[in-house]
Every structure is written in structure tokens, then in C-alpha cells.
Design a protein that fits this description.
Radius of gyration: 22 Å
Organism: Thalassolituus maritimus
Shape: globular
Low-confidence stretches: none
CATH class of the largest domain: Alpha Beta
Keywords: Aminotransferase, Biotin biosynthesis, Cytoplasm, Pyridoxal phosphate, S-adenosyl-L-methionine, Transferase
GO molecular function, one term: adenosylmethionine-8-amino-7-oxononanoate transaminase activity
Strand content: 15-25%
CATH superfamily of the largest domain: Type I PLP-dependent aspartate aminotransferase-like (Major domain)
Number of helices: 13
Family: Belongs to the class-III pyridoxal-phosphate-dependent aminotransferase family. BioA subfamily.
Largest sheet: 7 strands, mixed
CATH topology of the largest domain: Aspartate Aminotransferase, domain 2
Order of helices and strands: HEEEHHHEHEHEHEEEHEEEHHHEEHEEH
Function: Catalyzes the transfer of the alpha-amino group from S-adenosyl-L-methionine (SAM) to 7-keto-8-aminopelargonic acid (KAPA) to form 7,8-diaminopelargonic acid (DAPA). It is the only aminotransferase known to utilize SAM as an amino donor.
Mean pLDDT: 96
């Protein structure tokens, strides 16, 4: 069997390969990557790009990490995959042990899923099965926030923003959920008590139909890269308890340190009933996610009509992914993620601040290892992204947002280069 390196064939790619959120009639340009190491992507033409996206927020330790490589190879030699129905294995057990120890108190049962979207599907099904097992058979709908984003599968799409989101084309076939306005009090502002009123009103009116409230704690990601006040989350927790509604925290993007806390729920000092994690869990090596639940949720479901939780993916708890995830989480703690993220936060604040001087910029904000330049008008991606590549950086803007989530290992010099060239590319694109 040949083991030679496969060179990217751009012509075939353009004709046959469908990329995320792309058109097959007007596919746009893609840059072929042949290798990656640390925080750099090497292109087929020899150029190197500093990666500001952590490959959609997951490669927190950078690329080609020797510790993660060793974990992957060691596990591959022992067992790449085995079904999880009726069988178990050490990497899954150890991953569950780490997740229970790291996540907020009370989350003690771990369902290991395939991807972030699937973990949201699992959470939704858990909430509905829980309410059914309690005899609350009318509680079959979810309550979600406008400007929220939770994934691209059908159930996950149904709890994404129905107006501004990417999924309005499917509105006729998606389950109909309840929505309330997104929190308006910004992270750093004084809390406005009126902000929670729409949530209370919806719960008062609709709670007998609602199984759970799902939200992204403190940071709304793909819905606009918005940072909201932790008091909203604190009061949402209290309202869920008052009305018998479960709280699902989608920490897929924010989990494992990205917001400046290990989990964004910690800003409010609360623990959800169900939590979704993914993205950074394997350090970007392969797809994996998990849905954690309280003992109350898990045992109530298990005593219900079905006698079990009705979900079981073929590749659930894949040993390769679980083993790498264990190594990634160990590395996270050994590398002092808090110090790493704090350093990136300071570098982003300093480096992106100059963007506020540009006429086309509406806002510049930073939280943890997340930096956002929000534009007054939608980003001209076809101009801005090539300008970034020409300057040796990889940043993928969307809607009004030109943002970065760098790997935690990024050094000060690379971070300064990344931010200065972001501002330069933006100024060039805006004609300023």
C-alpha cells in the first residue's frame, strides 16, 4: 500500500469537493495546506500563515504536538475503535473522569458523542426524555435566545436564531421552539435588571410546554461574537429552577478556557443541568464531544418509560479520540491555560485597539482568547480573506465580524504580527 504524501489537486477540489457554507457554482478560492506545526499552516506554494482561528476554535495546543501525536499513535497500535454498546475501554473511562473533575459541580454523568452538533441533539433529547419521565408530557419544546447558534443538524438548527441565523430556509421542517431576545447588557457594563424580563415573561407564559432553556454562557459565538453580562446567566439559572425547566449550557466554543474561565458558566458561579462540550476537547486532532448531565437528570431518564436514554452513535466514545482528549486535557492543565489565555487577552486588547480608529469599524472587544472587530457593514470576505493570506495570516471573517481565537500556545511576537496585519488588511479592504 502506498504511503506517499497526497498533493492537493485544486482542480478536482473545485469541481467535486463541497466545502462548508460554500457554493458549487461559485465556490470561491481555497488555499491548499500541506502541513501544519505549532501555530503555522504551510501552503502548497511554500508560504506559511499564522493561524488565528485555531481551526474553528479547537487546536488550542497548536498543530503537530508531540504529546498528542504520541497518544494517538500509542492508541492506534492498541485499538483504533470498538463499539461502545455492551463494551467499554480505558480511554473513555479516563476521559469521563477528567470531564467530571473539570466541569462545574453536579455534572456527574457523561455521554460521549461524535461532534458538537450531536452533543446538542443529545442534550435536547435528554431534556425531553427527562420531562416525559416526570410525567410532564406536554414539555416537548425548547426555549432559546435570539442570536444563538448551536449547530447545523436539525434539532440543533431549531434552537438557533430563527431570524438572523443561517437556518431560516429550513423553518418549515424544523421543530418550533420558543425564543426570547438576546441579552443586551454587555459583559463589562453595569447590569440592567430589565434585561431578564423577557425570559421571565416567556417562562411564566409557556413553562408547561418547555423542557429546557438552552444558551451559550456569556459568549454568543456564531450568532455575532457577543459578550453578555454574567448576571443574565445567574438569573436564568434561578428562573429555570422556579419553573421546573432544565438549563442546558452549550460550552462547545467557550469550554476549556477560551473565555478566560475554564468554563464560561464560572463567570456566573452556576452549574447547568446539562452541558455540551466539544471543539477543543481533543486539541483539534479529531472530532469528539460530550454531553454531561446531573445524576437527577440521568436517573430520572433511566426510570422512565424507555428504561434507557435513546441515543447511541456508531462511533460513540471512539478510543482514538478519547485517548487524545485525555492527553489534551492533561496538557491544558500542565501548560497553565489560565496564564496562556490571560497573555493572549492582553495581546489582543493591545493589538486590535488600533482598529477602533477605522471609519468602518463599529466595535472592538476582547474576552479571554477571543478578539472581535465588528464592522458597520457586512465583511467583504472575497477581498478581506485574500488580503490576510497575502500578509501571512489565516483569519476567516463572517457577517459583520472580523475575529480571532488563536491557539493558546501563540507567542507574543506572533500574536503582535497577527493583530497588526489584521488591522492592516482591514484598512486596505476598507480603503482607509
Amino acid at each position: 500500500m502506498s504511503t506517499h504524501f497526497i498533493q492537493p489537486d485544486l482542480n478536482y477540489d473545485r469541481e467535486h469537493v463541497w466545502h462548508p457554507y460554500s457554493s458549487m457554482t461559485d465556490p470561491g478560492y481555497t488555499w491548499p495546506v500541506v502541513s501544519a506545526s505549532g501555530v503555522r499552516l504551510k501552503l502548497q506554494d511554500g508560504r506559511e500563515l499564522i493561524d488565528g482561528m485555531s481551526s474553528w476554535w479547537c487546536t488550542v495546543h497548536g498543530y503537530n504536538h508531540p504529546v498528542l501525536n504520541a497518544a494517538l499513535n500509542e492508541q492506534a497500535e492498541r485499538m483504533s475503535h470498538v463499539m461502545f454498546g455492551g463494551l467499554t475501554h480505558g480511554p473513555a473511562i479516563e476521559l469521563a473522569r477528567r470531564l467530571v473533575a473539570l466541569t462545574p459541580d453536579g455534572l456527574e454523568k457523561v455521554f460521549i458523542a461524535d461532534s458538537g452538533s450531536v452533543s446538542v441533539e443529545v442534550a435536547i433529547k435528554m431534556a425531553i426524555q427527562y420531562q416525559h419521565a416526570r410525567g410532564e408530557t406536554t414539555r416537548t419544546r425548547l426555549l432559546a435566545l435570539e442570536r444563538g447558534y448551536h449547530g447545523d443538524t436539525l434539532g440543533a438548527m431549531s434552537v438557533c436564531d430563527p431570524k438572523r441565523g443561517m437556518h431560516h430556509l429550513f423553518s418549515g421542517i424544523l421543530p418550533e421552539q420558543f425564543f426570547v431576545p438576546a441579552p443586551q447588557t454587555r459583559f463589562e457594563e453595569e447590569w440592567n435588571p430589565d434585561d431578564i424580563a423577557p425570559l421571565r415573561e416567556s417562562l411564566e407564559k409557556n413553562h408547561k410546554s418547555i423542557a429546557a432553556l438552552i444558551l451559550e454562557p456569556v459568549v454568543q459565538g456564531a450568532g455575532g461574537m457577543r459578550f453578555y453580562h454574567p448576571e443574565y446567566l445567574r438569573q436564568a439559572r434561578a428562573l429555570c429552577d422556579e419553573f421546573g425547566v432544565l438549563l442546558i449550557a452549550d460550552e462547545i466554543a467557550t469550554g476549556f478556557g477560551r473565555s478566560g474561565k475554564l468554563f464560561a458558566c464560572e463567570y456566573a458561579g452556576i452549574s447547568p443541568d446539562i452541558m455540551c462540550v466539544g471543539k477543543a476537547i481533543t486539541g483539534g486532532y479529531m472530532t469528539l464531544a460530550a454531553t454531561l448531565a446531573t445524576t437527577e437528570v440521568a436517573e430520572t431518564i433511566s426510570r422512565g418509560e424507555a428504561g434507557c436514554f435513546m441515543h447511541g452513535p456508531t462511533f460513540m466514545a471512539n478510543p482514538l479520540a478519547c485517548r487524545v482528549a485525555c492527553a489534551s486535557l492533561d496538557l491544558l492543565m500542565e501548560n497553565n491555560w489560565k496564564e496562556q489565555v490571560s497573555g493572549i487577552e492582553q495581546g489582543l486588547k493591545h493589538g486590535l485597539s488600533r482598529a477602533s480608529e477605522l471609519e468602518g469599524v463599529a466595535d472592538v472587544r476582547v474576552l479571554g482568547a477571543i478578539g472581535v472587530i465588528e464592522l458597520k457593514d457586512p465583511v467583504d470576505v472575497k477581498r478581506l480573506q485574500p488580503a490576510c493570506v497575502d500578509r501571512g495570516i489565516w483569519v476567516r471573517p463572517f457577517a459583520h465580524n472580523f475575529y480571532v481565537m488563536p491557539p493558546y500556545i501563540m507567542r507574543d511576537g506572533d500574536l503582535a504580527y497577527l493583530t497588526s496585519n489584521m488591522v492592516g488588511a482591514l484598512a486596505q479592504t476598507l480603503g482607509e
